[in-house]
Amino acid sequence: MSALAQDRQPRSSRRASLTTVPSGPAVLGRTPFLVILATFLVAGMVGVLLLNTTLQSRAFEVRKLQRQANEVSYLRADLESKARHLATNEELARRATEIGMVPNPYPVYVVLPSGEVRGVPKPVQGNEMPLVNYKSPAEVAAARQAAVSPAPVPEPVAPAEPGDGVAAAQGPQ
After folding, report:
1. Contact 93/73 with Cβ under 8 angstroms?
2. Within a domain: 66
3. Residue 85: which domain range?
4. I need a labelling partner for 17 at 20 to 30 A (CA). Which of 26, 74, 135, 168 fits?
């Protein structure tokens, strides 16, 4: 058919072949969109607040543990210092003297792999080294006390008078 022939057809028949176009997708209104947006915003703020609170409590815990670590470190350093002091030659000699030990000028050596003894073992009497003075801490403290406090001065005795019973008992001089 030609275009002229179509124009001659009644318009009512042409409309019957037309269909309606479906309307577009449903669009949310402004209010539901704002409610969803506010919900996401509140949920984000609550999440950030919980995260911040958790991190802050962890920071307090870290500070507390660092303080404890510092205290333990100072205690360890103090104990190491005391151990080094107790291991010095002077301290070992002092403690050995306290329990009555004296140095042995006649050393004897033991060879460990074979157990061989080199030297002649001799008992020590304590007077082998006369220039070395061995005093216990109690003796050293007593000597210091005696050096600090003056010796008591005897009181002068009054001369006896004649007729005194003491002078008669002594007899003629």
Report:
1. no
2. yes
3. 40-101
4. 26
